[in-house]
Specification:
The protein is of the alpha/beta class and 300 residues long. Helix content is 48%, strand content 17%. The protein folds into 2 domains: 189 residues, inorganic pyrophosphatase (n-terminal core); 97 residues, Diaminopimelate Epimerase, Chain A, domain 1 (Roll), CATH 3.10.310. It is built from 13 helices and 11 strands. A hairpin with a 2-residue loop joins β6 and β7. The longest helix has 17 residues. The chain starts with a strand and ends with a helix. 40% of the residues are buried. The model has no long low-confidence stretch (mean pLDDT 95).
Length: 300
């Protein structure tokens, strides 16, 4: 089978929970859609079954995957499709918890790690707090260490090393009962130092009315990290981060951004959850659509 998974901590842990043996192939798209080269590769591999994990690909890509093989979807992002073998729940803190529930897995490190990766400290304000506490007690860790592990696992995709993302799945499987091996991994810690410097160099922002606006200029995928940092500092503001080099806009807000996701999908590649929206668009349309976002969010 082939597991197509998101590149972040939740996606890595979700893929690890689904991976049964060494023959299961891992596939990580380079973006939030499948390009022609990736589609040709998937067709050529012709897997008996495809698992799409923690990734809300565009509807036409989902249709393509169904034309290739039997498709199973596990996801907690906003998506329209509700079909047989689609296990989705926007209220779940992570895809790992959807998989845990579906397969009746025990509470353990990987499901909790995926949830902490997506929710960070906010997971402690939910009904899943006890799940987190149980894991911390079992492995004699504190919450900051768990948070750092999620950042370490995120580091490969942020630096655009997608082969390392795939290797991370087997790495966390191997060390699911030894979290400190992840925490002390030298390469991942070096990644983190590089990312922290890049964030520091790009964390320049302005505040106007109800918006915090930050423009970054980097080849690295730090846009969501910067949005999270700013949202923690200004939780009552709408966070708007733009990376012109990559043609990305990222929005984080207390408001329900479902309407924004659907509007952006009409013209661009977009996805997210209720409180976040990521958009990939042509560089020459960034300014126009940024103003549209401001209007949408203000009136919602």
């Amino acid at each position: 089978m082939m597991i197509i998974h998101h590149w972040d901590c939740d996606g890595i842990c979700s893929a690890a929970l689904l991976k049964n043996n060494a023959k299961d192939e891992l596939f990580v798209p380079n973006d939030f859609f499948l390009n022609d080269k990736e589609k040709k590769y998937i067709e050529k591999r012709n897997p008996a079954r495809i698992y799409l994990v923690d990734m809300a690909l565009p509807e036409n890509d989902v249709t393509f995957l169904k034309s290739v093989s039997e498709l199973y979807v596990f996801d907690h992002h906003k998506r329209k499709e509700k079909e047989e073998n689609f296990y989705t729940d926007e209220d779940s803190p992570s895809t790992t918890f959807i998989i845990k529930k579906h397969y009746k897995l025990k509470d353990d490190f990987l499901p909790v790690l995926g949830a902490v990766g997506d929710k960070e400290e906010k997971i402690l304000d939910t009904k899943y707090k006890k799940n987190v506490e149980n894991v911390l007690e079992k492995y004699n860790m504190n919450f900051d260490q768990l948070l750092k592990i999620t950042a370490l696992l995120d580091s490969n995709f942020i630096l655009n090393d997608f082969e390392a993302v795939k290797r991370s799945v087997d790495f966390v499987l191997k060390n699911k009962n030894n979290p400190r091996a992840i925490l002390e991994n030298k390469k991942l810690n070096m990644n983190l130092e590089k990312i922290e410097k890049e964030i520091k160099d790009n964390l320049n922002y302005s505040i106007k009315n109800n918006f915090v606006l930050c423009e970054i200029n980097t080849k690295y995928r730090i846009i969501s990290k910067i949005a999270r940092i700013l949202f923690k500092k200004y939780p009552d503001k709408n966070i708007l981060v733009i990376n012109r080099k990559r043609g990305n806009i990222y929005v984080r807000s207390k408001k329900d951004l479902s309407f924004l996701i659907e509007n952006a999908k009409e013209r661009y590649f977009a996805g997210g959850k209720r409180d976040v929206c990521g958009i990939i668009l042509p560089q020459n349309e960034i300014d126009t659509y940024t103003e549209k976002i401001k209007t949408f969010v203000e009136v919602s």
